[in-house]
Amino acid sequence: MSETTGRKFALLPMLGHTKGKRSPVTCALKCDNACSGEVCNTSSNSYFRDIASATMSRRAALGFGAAGALAVVLGSAATSAGTAVADGGTGLAAAAKDGFGKSKLQFTAIAPVDAAVDAVTVPEGFTWQPIIRWGDPMFNGTPEFDLNNQTAAAQEKQFGYNCDYTDILEIPGTKGRRAVLFANHEYTNDAIMFPSTMPAADVRAVGAAAHGLSVVELERKNKNQPWTYVKGAELNRRYLNSTVYELTGPAAGSPLVKTKDDSAGRWIKGTLGNCAGGTTPWGTILSGEENFQGYFAAPGTTAEDKRYGLTSSATARKWELDEKRWDTRNAGYANEANRFGWIVEVDPFDPTSTPKKHSSLGRFKHEGANVIVAESGHVVAYSGDDERFDYLYKFVSKDKYREGDRKHNMTLLSAGNLYVAKFTGNSPAAEITGTGAVPADGAFDGTGEWLPLVVNGVSAVDGMSVEEVLVYTRLAADKVGPTKMDRAEDVEPSLHTGKVYVACTNNSDRGKAGKEGANEVNPRNQNRDGHIVEITETGDQTSTQFTWNLLMVCGDPAQGDVTYFSGFPVNKVSPISCPDNLAFDSVGNLWISTDGAPSGIGKADGLFKVTLDGAERGKVEQFLAVPRDAETCGPIIHDDERTVFVAVQHPGEEGTFDAPNSYFPDYVPAGTTPARGQARAPRPSVVQVFRG
Ligand code: FEO
Ligand code: CA
Ligand code: CA
């Protein structure tokens, strides 16, 4: 990389080695080439050895404490479910009574779209428009986006880059005409964001300001109209690298998280690598700090650094040139990387609130976290560690959810038990051939247990304190023998059934020489297309025992891929690969957005509906496709309003500033001067798809 420009990617180790359609640029910038290095998990554990979650959050009204003054009805399902609870509710019990239903959002599946198509493709009868784009001004006085004259001061008040998790929470008392949109900003791509003449220091500063989180108010004339964002609205907020987060739970105050800037070990500036997330029953947003390691230079020699992928290489963005804390070899900053890799909780209804990082949920490459309230009243949060051969986790709160007591509920993720999953298959190992062929009993299935890491405030891991377990969770989990998964991304409980869905996106290394081979819950070697695990807790959601089966083994049957869709005819599904983000509609269907298309067919990423019940269980129908080089993220399904939202992440990722690969979403014609606020360049955006 040239320090004069700071944005040329001289080293793209994934060139020629990426899977599906993932670009080497995405690998370099999003994941810090996690797949090109050694597998972080070299442990020797055995082969098998109110409202909750995004859907529940939309099913009932939220009870806010006296200080909150707001009672939020979250999204569409509250109206469609007929079980809305005016002052909160545990969600699962109410929702489960509904059973599955027929969605108002009817569509004819689209055909797979060629990867080179630079368009959002939606079903017949639907149209789309961006709600908010990278660079859109969020505050009064913020300048309009000006591609060729970007400044950090402007970007700090403009919508950030590359959204992943999104949710839209209706503001109560507005008759459905006002809402807040949350979006995170996972990472940046200097090569397509900035002109080559821009000084390197400015590139670093603007790029840094394009990270973090955004909350912005939306408005519409009525429920039949699409949303638009409101510049200068009261709840609008940008969360930047300078924003202070409070670390909660047992690791707060630990020597393991103290630095020169924070001798208390409780106040952390910034959030990084925010990927998927979830919405809590009490109307806050959770966001997962995933590939934080790519922002740090480090010794890279310790067991802890190695297990988290921290290396001594210069970072892609070189923020370490501006702030010493991004190089943990600098005096006083040895623990700075320990302050990232957490689940973040944000209150989108209070722009003055201090966001939290919850140590009780452990530290790893959190894809996201989704919450459900168990029958017992305890809050349960599920979270995947998105790395090849890493694990699936579950948190159970110490205290119980209290309807209507938002202040109390906002403390629930600060204390509780932490577990990691072990899966056992019920078919003979010889029947798991590594091809994806279904074993003789007709299912990939079995039993499982949640192995304790921290229980009742006490470490369950030999030789490690609670603080050590929570800060070095990967190393703690290695000691108790959980199952190594094929990159567990989004993990989402259904509020209709309580079943938990785990998107295992892929694992190109499974079964390779020296690497663990296929097993019943990860049944394919060199798993390029991924699969979905369906977990049924034994009894209450807080149980330490479960059963499981695979809902699907992804791929393109027409290309000869060995696939499985819970018995649904494989020739009647939309081909699907690399499942990533999950969401539910109001009647219990699962929706999946993808980060890759079936290998070899050159198709775009998409959003897919999957029927979970009845004769059509396992049927996959593609709803949309995203533009060239883009990944589909952050789906929100407001099916009772016949509308869907997605974040279009990294459009035109493989292009350059001077030769863009995508013109989404402004599509300014060649030779035309862009209108004010528009750009002839790809702009990651949150998009609404609606009838029209
Ligand atoms: Fe940011 Fe695991 O995807
Ligand atoms: Ca079986
Ligand atoms: Ca993801």
Description:
The chain is mainly beta. Helix content is about 10%, strand content about 25%. The strands form six sheets. Strands 13, 14, 16, 17, 18, 19, 21, 22, 23 and 24 form a ten-stranded antiparallel beta sheet that branches. The chain has a six-stranded mixed beta sheet with strand order 8-7-12-11-10-9.
Q: Helices, strands, pairings?
A:
Elements: H1 24-30, H2 53-57, H3 77-81, H4 92-96, E1 126-133, H5 152-155, E2 163-170, E3 178-185, H6 190-193, H7 200-209, E4 212-219, E5 228-229, E6 237-239, E7 244-248, E8 267-269, E9 274-279, E10 285-289, H8 303-307, E11 343-346, E12 356-358, E13 370-373, E14 378-384, E15 388-390, E16 392-400, H9 406-409, E17 416-425, E18 445-455, E19 458-459, H10 466-471, H11 473-478, E20 485-486, E21 488-493, E22 500-504, E23 531-537, E24 545-553, E25 579-584, E26 590-594, E27 606-610, E28 620-625, E29 631-638, E30 643-649, E31 685-691
The structure holds MU-OXO-diiron and calcium ion (2 copies).
The site of MU-OXO-diiron has 7 residues, from loops.
Tags for this entry?
six-stranded mixed beta sheet, 31 strands, ten-stranded antiparallel beta sheet, 692 residues, 26% strand, mainly beta, binds calcium ion, binds MU-OXO-diiron, disordered N terminus
Number of strands: 31
* Main beta-sheet strand count, sense and barrel state: 10 strands, antiparallel
Q: Tell me the strand percentage band.
A: 25-35%
What is the general shape? globular
Overall mean pLDDT stands at: 90
Distance between the amino and carboxyl termini: 46 Å
Number of helices: 11
Low-confidence stretches: 1-13, 45-97
The residue fraction in helices comes out at under 10%
User: What molecules are bound to this protein?
Assistant: MU-OXO-diiron, calcium ion
> Helix/strand-derived class?
mainly beta
From the alpha carbons, calculate the radius of gyration and give it in angstroms: 23 Å
